[in-house]
Amino acid sequence: MSYRNASLPPKERVQDLLSKMTRAEKIGQLVQPFGWKCYRKLEDGTVEVTEAFKEQLKAGGVGSLYGALRADPWTGVTLETGLSPEQGAEAVNTIQRYAIEQTRLGIPILFGEECSHGHMAIGATVFPVPLTIGSTWNPALFKEMCRAVAVETRAQGGATTYSPVLDVVRDPRWGRTEENFGEDPVLVAEMGVAAVEGLQGDDLASESSVMATLKHYTAYGSSEGGRNGAPAHIGLRELHEVDLYPFRKAVEVGAGSVMPAYNEIDGVPCTSNRYLLHDVLREQWGFDGFVITDCGAINMLVNGHNTAATGEEAVAASLKAGVEMEMSGEMLSNYADLAIEQGWMDEADLDLAVGRVLEMKFRLGLFERPYVDAKHAKAVIGQPEHKQLARRVAAEGAVLLKNERATLPLTRKISKLAVIGPNAHAPYHQLGDYTSPQRREQIVTVLDGLREKLSAEQTEILYAPGCRVRGEDRDGFPLAMEQAIKADAIVVVVGGSSARDFGEGAIDLRTGASNVTDNSWNDMECGEGIDRTTLYLTGVQLELVQELRRLGKPLIVVYINGRPITEPWIDEHADAILEAWYPGQEGGHAIADILFGDVNPSGKLSVSIPKEVGQLPVYYHSRRTRGKRYLETDLSPRYPFGYGLSYTTFEYRNLKVEPAVIDTTGEAVITVQVTNTGTVAGAEIVQLYVSDLAASVTRPEKALKRFEKIELEPGETREVAFLINREQLELIGLDLQPVVEPGAFDIIVGPNSVEGLVGRLTVE
């Protein structure tokens, strides 16, 4: 059979296999059931496939399984009931072997896994969340991290992952802000390219590569009111210039899969939007992978968007728009055949979708190497090198927002240090959403990190949580104050939590998102399904910080959270503020490294932090026509995009634009000298913004176009050069086509979005 001949091109193998398939077998390839429901763990740690799964295979087959190794409250898989890395690999082999040996054509299953910030399986490394990664401004570091994630995931048989998330954040009240890199399309695009290159490697068929899935396509981060999946009110020009841009750049480097967003744009759900899924994605960009829906998205066309009256109509609308696989739903298996019989779509529509799925299976090498080595999985998953990498990412992604009177770094000779707050010693609170259950010894809290950091010193560490993230209970205040009174300095760790609630009714069983609950044990205030109306600290955390401030001791606030926090009182009264986001399993070490100066903070904000919620939206590249001010305040954020302090200082000099005049197809080189004018080594993120002074359409005041992270010793000067060409100067014109218009452009180079040297470039 030609389709088994590895020497033939994938497309030729696809055509041979398609010619042998029944309609039921074709539909089966587009179906993706929940993987954790397809097997049962036995007492000896092995697994057996369920009867229900066997029946599905008999009925026509299963193309893919979602989250076979996923462990969390949705799946019900815990540390006690779950599988070790070695057992997980063996389980996937068992399922794969049954599917290949017990079906007529022996088509291997594509195992899809969640890997937003590490494989969501027991034992895998938990890296910082994407919002932390965005704050590193270091795509090369993120690419290295993605290689580690790919190694751990493929070792257990996962061949595709549902990441990276390339949404551009507009309203940080959105609970999924933590899953995104930030508010700027160029920064998001750079991280997206790094993710694709890191996850997919040089060869998709490699045992260290997984297929990337770009999501959520598109404008998912532009939802009305910051509510998850709400409509996106966005025009075509902005859609192409901002929200589509990261997806286009990631497609250009070969991303294998794309996931449409749940939301609608101007009344058209992304799941059935042919303009997005076919005209733009395939015709304009040349995408040659396959499109998979988000969980339950086709059903939403009937029950949610109500753009289809029946299941068969919804299925046809999705497939004809450009969808090839349905994530964890039953619409295709129930209605695809009926949709063809009733004339809603043709057999050719089905063949096109199936062919694209099969081609990616061939490119992934699943027909030649469907099984994995369980011993290899045991060796590479959670290895020490990956933990060290997680620590480095967490340290580079932490942002120093305030440091009055050089409060930080702390001296190791400090006699007594108070560590206070609900997030100082709460392992799950620092991990973020989409995290598997963790053994306690795998997680380094801030308290753990500080204790280890000072283990050889005479410092006494005094700890008290004080309160919880949510709730009005102040019973912990007296102990917190008692400990703080005895200390020379106070580190108070507050913020949020995306630790999923195990309580009844807390999980949307259809999509896996969290539901808002009032369960007394629930501290979750961020994550998928947890949107907010404010950005204040929840519960009585602010009161705790205020009580500690009254002691008059040096007060360092550490935020651990998944979205920006707006607390003007803390901004004014804290001596130092460190924003760590969700720093992952090694977060405690990374934070301790920064607090005591073993690491000089270099992170910069990838989202603007407003003074108050009433300013939203407050992203930096809003258009010139946005207005001037409110009655109560202006439009400036508390901390601007690109902002972050260091333990040293940097000076920018000698900005040059050469040549200063180019034509519409030309290019210019921008150079600037950056000097470390402080006393310690440090890293600086040099940022280049372009301001189009006059254009045929309204432009942003400025827009990030280039950036580079450099390291400088005290007194060292380095010249940084950026190339500016058509891509950095073009806009989407009146005819909705990209164009470089003649005119004057200001080139701004500096440390953040509000400071910098200005040069002039003229396009003739």
Automatic annotation (TrEMBL):
Keyword terms of this UniProt record: Hydrolase
Tree of life domain: Bacteria
Alphabetical list of InterPro entries matching this protein: Cellulose_Degrad_GH3 (IPR051915), Fn3-like (IPR026891), GH (IPR017853), Glyco_hydro_3_C (IPR002772), Glyco_hydro_3_C_sf (IPR036881), Glyco_hydro_3_N (IPR001764), Glyco_hydro_3_N_sf (IPR036962), Ig-like_fold (IPR013783)
Molecular function GO labels: beta-glucosidase activity
Transmembrane segments: none
GO biological process: glucan catabolic process
Domain Fibronectin type III-like: 684-753
Similarity comment: Belongs to the glycosyl hydrolase 3 family.
The protein's name in its UniProt record: Beta-glucosidase
Organism: Paenibacillus antibioticophila
